[in-house]
Amino acid sequence: TGGVGEFKTRILTGLKKKGLEIIRAYGNADTDVCAYARAGIDPAQSFMVGPPGRACAGYPATRALNSYTDHLRELGSEAVP
Prior knowledge:
Layout: H1 4-17, E1 25-27, H2 30-38, E2 46-49, E3 63-65, H3 68-79
Helix pairs in contact: 1-2
């Protein structure tokens, strides 16, 4: 808590206040998990490379990914009927 995590939350919150709609968020650090949740990004749309079950206290866990490229393949297959 504090430092990097607070900085990330402040930046994301500021971007949202300026009208940026964040529909998905990707990261690999525990500070990303809390920053996304605290900035109001749906944890179901927050993806972290690394172990499953990463969550910020008081928020649901994010979705774990093996790699970004695996997730891109998954998203691509969802787009094809």
